Fold each of these.
Amino acid sequence: MSEEAAAERLKAREDFLRLMSHEIRTPLNGVIGMLGLLARTKMDGAQRAYLSGARESADHLLSLVNDLLDFARIEAGRLELEAAPVDVERLVQSVAELLSPRAHEKGLELAWAVDADVPDVLADDGRLRQILFNLAGNAVKYTETGGALISVRRAGGRGKKAKLRFSVRDTGPGVPEAARERVFEEYGHAQPQHACRYDSAGLGLAVVKRLVEAMEGAVGVSAAAGGGSEFWFEASFPTVAAEPRETPLEGLTVAIASPSALVREAAGRQVEAAGGTIAAAASMEAVTAAPDAVVLVDHALAVEAGTLVPRPRDRKAIVLLRPEQRELIEKYRGAGYCGYLIKPLRRSSLAVRVKAALSGQVSSAGGLAPLDDDRVAPATIAGVRVLLAEDNPVNALLVQTVLRREGCTVELAGTGGEVLDAMTRARFDLVLMDVRMPGMDGMAATRALRARGEAAPIVALTANAFDADRKACIEAGMNDFLTKPIDPATLRHALARWTNRDMRVKLAS
C-alpha cells in the first residue's frame, strides 16, 4: 500500500470514529439527561430505585463507549502528543474537583496533593488529564468506603528534565498480585469476576498504558498500605522555567482533625508545600494541644448530618465542608469559626484562609485573594439571555430545562443560519453552539460571528469528544468546549464562568 493510500485509509478511519462518537453519544446524552430531569420529579421509593438502576446502566454504557472509541482511535495510529506548558498542580486539582461530586454521592473522600518541588512541565495536558481521570474514576467506581488520593511527587531528573510520579491510591478491594499485569492489557481480564471488579472490559486501563508508553513512561499497580490499590505512572518531561512556589505558611503550624486518613494526608502535604508544618489526628482532642496552631476541623467529625462540631477552645478554627454542605457555612461562623474550606482542599485557598484567621481578617482586604470558594458561592445568572443552537429536540429540551431552572431566558436556533439571524436582531449574553447542525454548522457560524465582530462568549456543545475537536472549536473562535452528555452541574459552571463577571474573578483566582 502506498504512503498516500495509507494516509487516506487512516483519515477515513478517523472520520468514521468521529462520526460514531457523535452518533452514539448524542442519543446517550438524551437518555442520561432525561433521567436526570426525571430524578427531580416526585416518585415513590420503588420508582426511584428503578431510576437509579437505569442511570447507573447508562453511565456504565457511556464509559464503555468512551473507552472503545479511544482504544479504536489509538489502534488506528492517530495517537499524537502535543507539548505545551502544564501547571501540574492546577491539572490535578481540576481532575479531583470534577470527580469529587461522584465520590461524595457514594460517601467517599477524594483528595489531592502535589509536592512543592514538582515543577511545571512541557506535556500534553489533555492526555495527562485523560490518564488521571481514568485512574481516579476507577478508584471512585470500585471503592465503597474511605476514598482516594491523587498525588504527584518528583521521582528524579535533573537540569531541564524532571521525572514525575503520578499516583492514585484508594481504599478499595485491591488487585490480587496475579492480576496486576493483566489489568493493563486489552481484554486481559475478560473473565466475568475480573471484568466486574477491576475495570469493565479492560479497555480503560489499556488506553492508559498506551498513553503512558507514548510518553516513554512506565505504569503499574501495587498494594496500598492499609489495604486498597495504588495505580501509578512515571514519565520524564522537560521543565518550564517558572518562579519558585511561594511559601506563605513558612514558620506557621496548622493542625487538622479529620476521621479520614486521606484528608489528613492531603491537607498535611498541602500545608508542607506552602512552607508550614502540620499536626494531624483523627480526633479534636489530639490536635488542640498544638500551641498557636490554626485548627482545620472536618465536619465529618459530626456524628449526625447537620450537627456542628464544637469549636476548639482558645484556638482559631476553620471548618472543612463538602460543596453540598454550603448551608452550614453561616452556622459555623455563628459558632465562632473563622471561616470554611471546601473539599477537595485547594492549597492556595488553605494558605489564604489560615493567614486570614491568624490576622483576624474575614474579607479579601490586605491584598489576600477572595475568600469565597466558587464551588459554593452563588452565581448571579438569573435573567441571563442565552441563545441555544441545537437541532436535536431531546437535547434542546434538556439544556433549555436546565437553563430556565437557573432563571435564564432562552431562545432556540436549529441551524447556523438561524444563529446569525438571531444575533443580528437581539443581544445575547452567551451562545451555546452545537457543532453539527444541518446547513451551516456550528464552526462556520462561529467564524461568521467573529468575522463581523461579535464578542459574545460562545461555548461548544458537541458529541465529538476527541482532542482535535476541542482544538478545532477553539481555533474557530469559541471560548469553551462542553462534551455531550451534558452534565447539569458542568453546564451551570460554564454558565457562571462566562456570564457572571464576579464569578469569573473567583474562578481565575
Amino acid sequence: MSGFVEKPEPIQVPGLVHLHTGKVRELYQNEAGDLVMVASDRMSAYDWVLPTEIPDKGRILTQLSLWWFDRLADLVPNHVLSTELPEGAPADWAGRTLICKSLRMVPVECVARGYLTGSGLAEYQESRTVCGLALPEGLVDGSELPGPIFTPATKAEVGEHDENVSYEEVARQVGAETAAHLRQATLAVYSRARNIAHGRGIVLADTKFEFGFEGDTLVLADEVLTPDSSRFWPADQWQPGRAQPSYDKQFVRDWLTGPESGWDRRSEQPPPPLPEHVVEATRAKYVEAYERLTGGAWH
C-alpha cells in the first residue's frame, strides 16, 4: 500500500473544473476547454506523497520546464498556451500555473537513458538488458551507455510503480507508427538537452517525457527536464561504480531509509514528516539545478 499520506483538498476556483490530483500537480479545465496545470510543493518518494512540502519546488519545476520548452521548440511543439493566472485564482498560484492545450495523451512514459542506473541497472545486472535491449558486458552503476536508449514504461496510478516495458510492447499498445514517432522524439529531445546540460557542468543521466496528440501532431506535455523527472549529476563528481551525487530528492530518500526517520519502507505505515534540515537541503538542490542550468539567479 502507498499513495498520499494525507490527500489535499483541491482549491475551488470559479470558472475552473477540478479534474485530477496528481503526485505534484493539480489539474483543472477552464471554460474554453484548456487544461490548467498547477504545480504544488508536494514531494513524493518510494511511491508515497509525503506530508511535508518543499518551499518553492512547484515554481522551480514550472519555470525550469518553460526554460526547456523554449530550447526544444524547433524539435517538437509543446502544450503551453499561457502562463497568465486564471481570474479568481489564489495569489500563490503565480509562477506555478500553466494554461495548456488539451491533448489526446499517449499512455506511455517515454524514458531516455544515456547512463546506467536505477531500474535500468537492476535489470542489466539480471539479464544484461534494459527494456529488452542488449547492452555490453562490464557496465556498472553510473556507466555511460554506448549511445542513448529509449526505455519506455507504462504509466501507473499514484502509489503504484511505473513498469518498464519493451519497445515491441509499446508498438502493440499504441501502434507501430506512433511508437516509432515517440522513440525518435524522445531521443532527439534527450540528446539536445544532454548537450545543453553538459555545457553547464551537469550530466543528464536519464529523463522521462510525456507526449500527446493535437490532431496528427505529436506534442510534448506535462513537465520537462526537471529534478523530478530527470537524474542530474554534477559532471565534475561523476565516477562510475558507485551511486552518483544528484540534484534531486536523494536527501529525502536517504533520510527516509536511514535510522533517524525510524521508518520501514517495507511496512504499510506512511512515512513521517521531514525534518527542517532535509527540507532546506532539498530546496537548495532544486535551486542549484535551476541556477546551473539556466544561468540565472532564482528569485
Amino acid sequence: MKKSLSRIALLTSGGDAPGMNAAIRAVVRSAAYHGLEVLGIMHGYEGLINNEFIKLQASSVANIIQRGGTILKTTRSARFVTEAGMSRAHKNLKAFKADGLIVIGGDGTLRGARDLGTKFNFPVIGLPGTIDNDLVGTDMTIGYDTAINTVVEAVDKIRDTAESHDRLFFVEVMGKDAGLIALRSGIAVGAEAILMPESPTNIEALIEKLQNVKRKKSSKIIIVAEGDKAGGAFEIAEKVTAKVKGYEARVTILGHIQRGGTPSCMDRVNASRMGYEAVNALMKSKQGVMVGIVNKEITYTPFEQAVKHIHRLNPELLKMLEVLSL
C-alpha cells in the first residue's frame, strides 16, 4: 500500500441515482479494512468549498445499502467551476489532510474531478453514478438498472388502462442528452415507437405507423425521451393527434420517480464492486480515472474519455424495435 495514503475524501454530486449509498458503503468499509480514514463531504462540490466534512466509520454506513438517494446529499455547484471555487476546494482538501478524493456522479461530476485533479495534480477517482447510462467506460452506470425497471413497472400499469380504453399513451422518460432509458425500457414494454435525441424523429412516419396499427392493437405506447429534438411528450402528442383522428390520447410524465426508490440487486452489486475498486485504485496510486465494469471485468477509464457522451445507439436494437413493434 502506498505509505502516504491514510485519509480519503468522498462526495456525491449532480443528480442522485439509486445505488449511490451502496457505493458509499463500499468505499467506507473497504477503507476501514485497510486502516484508512474516510471524510465524507456533504452536498457535493459545494460542500467541499464550504468545508462540510464529516468523519465516516464502518458503523456510519450501516443499513444504507438498500436506500435510494445519497446520505451525503448532493447539489450542483456553480462556484466549483470557477478558478476561485476550485482553488478553495483544493485548499480545504489539503487542510483536512486528505490524500485522495473519490467522487460519485455523472458527466458534470467527472468533468469537475478531471479539472481538479489536473490543475492541482491531486489524486481523484470517479465512480459513474447517473441513471442516464451516458458515460464511456462502463456497461451500466450506477442507478441505470433501477431507473429502467421503474419505467417498465410504471408503463406496465399504464398499458392496463390503455388496453381498457383503447387509448394512445405518450410516456415521457428522463434523458435530456441520451435516450438509453427510453431505448431499453421501450423495448421491454413493447412500445410502438421510441423517440430519442440520438435518432431524428419523423412525425409523419410516426403518424403513418400509428394509422397502420390502429385496427390491430387495443393499446399503443409511445416512449419519449425528454431531450427528443421534436419536443416533449405533450408537444409530440399534439402534433400527432392534430393529424390522426379517432385516437383518445393521454400523456404521462414519469419525472423524478425514475431517480428514487430502492436500488435493484444489479445496482447494489455494481456499486459495491466499483466502490471497493475505487479504494484499491487510490492504493495503487492511480488518479484521473473512472472505475467501471465492462464485460463483467473492472476497468479504469481516463476522465477525458469517460465524459464523452454516447451519441450512437446500437443499430441492431433499433432494427429489432422496428420488427417487434409491428
